[in-house]
Amino acid sequence: MSDDGLPEAAWAYLRALDAELSDVPSGTAEEIVADVRAHIADALDSGRSADEVLAGLGAAPDVARQAREELGLPDQDRPERVGRTLSLVASAVGVLIAVCVSFLLPSTVPVEPIQADAGEQGVLGRLGPGIALLTLLPALVAAAPLVAPARVRAGSRLAGAIALTMFACAAGETGLYYFPLALVAWAAAFVPWAVRRGAGGRWWHVLAGGIVAMPGVLVAVASAGGSVGVGWVGAALWIAGPVAAGALCAYGFRAGYAVTALAGALVMILAMAERGFLFAAFWLFGGLYLALGAAGYAAARPADGDPATARAADGDPTSPPVDGDPAGAPGAPARPRPAPATEADPEAAAPAG
Amino acid sequence: MDGARERITTNIRKGVLEYCVLALLSRRDMYGLELADWLAVRGLTASEGSLYPLLARMRQAGTVQTRWVAPEQGHARRYYAITDQGRAHLRVFATVWREIQPHVDELMGEEG
């Protein structure tokens, strides 16, 4: 068996290790992953089973912890950091919505559905009956995972997402305002789980980029068909903007996700200020942008801006040239990263066996 | 007691593993799996995976260097070699170790 034929379990391990090493300088992370990949290939060649080899290596988070320790980096579990970032975003969105609902729309707040929500009467009692404080309750639900003990944190994110979705669906018009919060809460529940499982490959970014670009494409199609008149300023804003942000997201650029999240927040604020025709559409789509942008921003790798290009730039890793780089400085020429078998990686694409 | 044993083992390994690697590489160049197997069989490293972050750091520190060797058959391997700086570190460690070891042995001998 050669390096080309690593079993799926080995690829999954390498992907998980790669994801766990996200806060390690990218050159060093690539070296470690390349070494571990060679180790697995050599060990399989020597007749060991994949399970045996992976057990001998130790769990990917442990190897990553070792790396952070060796390199003097702060020890923090990456999925946990991602979840924390998204819970913070969700809390901020919750506060923003509460401000909108309680100050801009004081008449639309029904008290009953909030009281009925998720058994939070204890908190409610302490906060007192003020309507303005009641509107903050969903934000507190979103913030709860930040203070929850580690072993119930993932559960509290999922429970929060479910509770906020039920509230958004049950609370009529007020619920509509909280839909974006529910979306971000789902991102906070789902993304850390996906990151822990080693997801985050190119196809996630392409999917996110496609959704981000969609409004631009729709407007472009509508204006080309003549059903919507769009001036060049409008074209730049509603066509080029989403398409450009979508392209950046599809390539896995963190900045693209940041722009998307900010654009979503801006659209929400403008929708709230205008309260015009199609308010709900703008509000929900702004919320979707915000949730998607925040999720992608939290999950995208910070150090090596563009994983897609880094992979494309890889040479054939099975016959690398002499690597005369004794210092092994961070940012050294890219060593291959493990890639899902579906990607255009010469090794991964080769048939197994 | 198992927890104490694990903690003590971890701490001692932490202090010596790097120099065991240097000593091994001072005999001959080795690739990752060779090093990992040698160390794991002798209980000098808890998991084989933890060796690679150490090697990455040693590379940055300049005590080892690497080269890829592509054999005619099979896949390429990254070989690790000790540098002059690595040999210097190894000599210092050996001196310190020889000073400390007899005293520790003497005391531990009393423990049976």
Automatic annotation (TrEMBL), chain B:
Pfam families: PadR (PF03551). InterPro entries: Metal_resp_DNA-bind_regulator (IPR052509), Tscrpt_reg_PadR_N (IPR005149), WH-like_DNA-bd_sf (IPR036388), WH_DNA-bd_sf (IPR036390). Residues 21-91 form the Transcription regulator PadR N-terminal domain. Signal peptide: none annotated. This is PadR family transcriptional regulator. It comes from Micromonospora chalcea.
